[in-house]
Amino acid sequence: MGKQGWSGLPDIIYSLSSGSALPTTLIGSKIYSFSEVSSTNTIAIQMAHEGAPEGTVVIADQQHHGRGQRGRAWYSPGGVGIYMSVILRPHLPPENISQLTLITALALAEAVAAATGLKPGIVWPNDVFINGHKLAGILAEAEWEEANIRHLVIGIGVNVNHTREMFIENHLPEATSLKVESGHEYSRAKLVRKILLNLEERYLEFLSQGFEPIGERLQELDGTVGSWLEVISFGNRFEGESLGIDSTAALLVRVGEVVRRITSGRIKILYNNYHLISHPSISKNSGLSFL
Predict the structure, then answer these.
(1) Is the pLDDT of residue 5 over 90?
(2) Dihedral angle, C-alpha 183, 127, 62, 79, nearest 10 °
(3) Over the range 184-205, which residues count as b (16 or more CB within 10 Å of their CB) and which as e?
(4) Which pLDDT tens digit goes with each residue over 133-174?
(5) What superfamily does domain 3-220 belong to in CATH?
(6) C-beta of residue 241 within 8 angstroms of C-beta of residue 274
(7) Which one, of 158, 167, 161, 206, lies nearest residue 27 by Cα?
(8) Which contiguous run of DSSP H or E holds residue 151?
(9) Measured between alpha carbons, how far is 46 from 64 in angstroms, rounded to an integer?
(10) Considering the domain 224-290, what is its CATH architecture?
């Protein structure tokens, strides 16, 4: 299956030589790297079934069948992106999976901001955007028994040093990369280290303090607030104004005088900054009806 370590990733090998441990205690306790795979999530799921410990990371330089949400492919050429999966075993009910997905998005967005000075935003339920274009995506796949998650595999894909021409040639007009946005190339190894460190900090914070403190930070980075959305949830389609992510990881959408709370589904931003609003307007004392 490959060997443990950072083999197959030239820039990561350079920066993380043998004996250069990650500054984490849980996430990245074991790391398996590959030059090419079908999908890091596929490998991580297999490892989870075989008893791999929490915090195990699978990372690849290239994916041939990288997966995104709803069966979509994730463009994963070699040498330019980050494609990795993390195994978690949180002993929580499956209702928390959406929160853990957004926690990962937050850790990723904060890592990008710290490393590049750019200002990424989080788009519910699992994406990171910059300037209206998709920079990164997250795919969470879990198994549970009775009331608890048995394992959760979180796949992370980040466009780092892709060129604009690569996206054009592969018919991805909505995609962007750190290089496209800044004009600079970045070390994937340094970004991986920062992402995993942030993820560990946010994950442990969630386990000890719950989602509310993290939810407040998510609201600050919410990239949909004030935008007009198309929402498809449980087979129903409607449009409305985004009021952002609430303290439980649901998306609040104003439809007329009613605020709908979306816990599952997908969205499309139809108009950015449709009507700028302040976060206090999502209060239940605002006079709006909540569903």
Answers:
(1) no
(2) 10
(3) eebebbebbbbbbbbbbebbee
(4) 999 999 999 999 888 999 999 999 999 999 999 999 999 999
(5) Bira Bifunctional Protein; Domain 2 (3.30.930.10)
(6) yes
(7) 206
(8) strand 148-159
(9) 17
(10) Roll (2.30)
